[in-house]
Amino acid sequence: MAHELIIFLASAAVISLSGVMSPGPMTAAAIGHGARSRSAGVWISLGHGAVEVPLIIVLYMGASALFQADWTRITIGLAGGLFLLYMGVGLMRTRAELPGSEDKTSTKNSFIAGVLMSIGNPYFLLWWATIGLGLVMGAERFGLAGIIAFIIVHWSCDLIWFTILSVLSNKGVETFGARLYQRVSHACGVALILFGGLFIAHAMRMILQA
Q1: Count of domains in the chain?
Q2: How does pLDDT run across 24-55, given as a tens digit for each residue?
Q3: Domain annotation covers residue 18
Q4: What pLDDT score was predicted for residue 101?
Q5: Is residue 77 part of a domain?
Q6: SS3 per-residue string spanning the chain
Q7: Does some domain include residue 25?
């Protein structure tokens, strides 16, 4: 049984990494906030985990149908899209000035971004209602220990990837200065605006088809 659990966790790690490494709002947030603070990836991962762990538990308890409902995806698409537009515009307004040293504000903002980027992303819920649900069901075969191990492995993938992105972004800004900081922030702002528009357009299409 132990070797089967190890094989399952290894496959779960590969699948999890394929999901977290796909370009999306969280990627843009990790790079954008990383330009300000190299620890941003850690706090974004913690905010993401604050949403993701309860979600895994809910799926484990059998509430997957809720996340597949059209009204859930429409609501999240509209609210999440508007939030991403707001975040994107904020990054677009970044000036060519290096941020000060890390403080509680940057830490708090990164954590909140992790929470809201997760809650407001309809594809995040869709992933968990499909691929993620399959992983949860696989972990369920090993009991509570399997679920806990799966949560740790999956979240570790998020932590490692977002930390790498934020550290590399911060290193780049330290090396090339304020102009790169502005360009990185603007590029991430454009990405968030595009994702926000995509989420809203998808939600509106679902409304029209209802």
Answers
A1: 1
A2: 788 888 888 887 888 889 999 999 999 999 98
A3: no
A4: 47
A5: yes
A6: CHHHHHHHHHHHHHHHHHHHCCCCHHHHHHHHHHCCCCCHHHHHHHHHHHHHHHHHHHHHCCCHHHHHCHHHHHHHHHHHHHHHHHHHHHHHCCCCCCCCCCCHHHHHHHHHHHHHHHHCCHHHHHHHHHHHHHHHHHHHCCHHHHHHHHHHHHHHHHHHHHHHHHHHHHHHHHHHCHHHHHHHHHHHHHHHHHHHHHHHHHHHHHHHHC
A7: no
